[in-house]
Structure formats: structure tokens, C-alpha cells
């Protein structure tokens, strides 16, 4: 496997790196440096979102990387996401343009609908990021009656306008993708989902791949990102302590994290791990020089218990995965 493996996206034919750096939960005061350091050591995909609250800082990092010659714009792949409060047609473009201004870019390589959930509009001058709740006390989640079709057609218009090269969806279940494909003029290029050995979602992944849709997996290390947030994340066994992961790490002389990440990209599923520690950031990208066997891939997949951590049904009124 090459040092920078890629997957070809439909319908554009653009190559998306399979190894990226995720910006979720990255503090604003760390985001600029993380972008710069990631690009220096060879990352070529940056996964952002307006809801992460750090796109301005990411933009500073990107600009510095361009200005100092670390990378050129055409060498990297930048993803952002449309938040739930901007699903109305009239708000989709302004949300995308705001992300572009913050990121200091003239186009995005990929723009995703973050969740299949439409919420009451929040003026970004009042609160940005808008998050899940309608007021600053975070007391109420207010849905809006906006269809996925309306939002998707507005996403397609972003492609027409040259603001976005590829569009896709995140946190969509199979039924919603089946419905979307009935009316999509431009098919989604990517589905981004929670994906780890605890949550393999194989039927969903096999279906979208059959439709020419690439897959990106987030929360690659299972419950580690959610400890202290949800009780079931605290009580779940640490993925890296699973015997099969430890055995393969010892066999190949790699870290448990590298084994888990390799399990994904060997199956052509893109990964977006993050780390604020330089040595781990470099390690997460160093996945060449060894290959897991089909039997080993299967053993890792057998850890699946359908254990999901990022579930709006836990923290909102939307049980989208039930």
C-alpha cells in the first residue's frame, strides 16, 4: 500500500486520501498548529465542520501552509459539513460560504450534510457554532420541517456554482440513502459514519459501495473519544485492550492504533483520527510496510457488537438510528 493511498470519488473522479486528520474536539488554540504539523508530516486530508467551532483557526493553518510552501492548495483535500440549523435552501449556500471564508478557501473538496436532522435556524451573529439547542442555556431542541430533498438540491447548487467539488452525507442510515438516491441529480460521493471494530456497519457499507459511494469512518478507536461524555463509553472495554488487537500489534511491531486504522484502509474505508501529540499524529499516518491477512481482518471485524457512541437519540429528541 502506498504512503498516501487514495480512493476515486464518483462522479468527479477526484482522488480522496484514505488517511486524514480529523478536527473534531480540537481546541481552537491548538487547531492552527495541528493543521500545520499534520501537513508537514504528510497528511493531505483535513476533515472539518462548522459545528466544531474551529474553522477560523484551521483556515489560519491552511493559509500559513500555503504561504510557506508546505503544500499547495491542489495538493490537499478539505472537507466541511453543513450544520442542522442551516438545512433550508436559503441557508445552505450562506453556510457554505461562511465555512469557505473561515477556512480561507475558494472551494471545498467535499461538503457533507452533517446529520439528517433539520433544526430551527440560528443566526451565526447570535451564536456560532449553533450546536443542538435553541438558546444559550441549552434547554430545548427545536426541529424544522425541511425535507432532505430540499437540502440536497441546495447542496447540488453548490456544485453548480463551483463552491464545492463533491457532496455527500454523514450519519445517514440505509433507508435515508435509499430515499436520497431516488431524487439526487448528483449522487453523494461520500458517506461518513461512525466506524470501529465495535460498530462495523457492514451491510450499510456494502450497499453504499455498490452504489459507487465512498465511505469515511470517524471515531476509529471506539469509545476513547467519548469517555467522560456517555456512561456506556466509560463502561465499554477499551478497544486497544482486546486480545486480537494486542496480538496483531505484537506480531507486526505496530501500535494497537495502527492495527485498527490499517483494518479500515485495507477495506477501502477512509480514516480521520486526530491526536495533539506529535508522535501519535505521525504514528497514525504510518500505515505502510505491513498488510493484515483476510483472516486477521475478519477477526477484528468479529469484535462488532453494534456499539454506537455518537447517537443523537442519547442527547436529543432524534433517535435516527433506532
Automatic annotation (TrEMBL):
- Keyword Phosphoprotein found: no
Residues the record marks as site: Lowers pKa of active site Tyr: 81
Q: Which InterPro entries match?
A: AKR (IPR020471), Aldo/ket_reductase_CS (IPR018170), NAD(P)_OxRdtase_dom_sf (IPR036812), NADP_OxRdtase_dom (IPR023210)
The Swiss-Prot or TrEMBL record annotates one GO molecular function as: oxidoreductase activity
Key words of the record: Oxidoreductase
Residues binding substrate: 114
Q: Does the keyword Secreted apply?
A: no
Q: Which residues form the NADP-dependent oxidoreductase domain?
A: 19-304
Region forming the signal peptide:
none
- Indicate the residues that form the catalytic site: 52 (proton donor)
Give the family per the record: Belongs to the aldo/keto reductase family.
Q: What is this protein called?
A: Xylose reductase 2
* Organism (species): Glomus cerebriforme
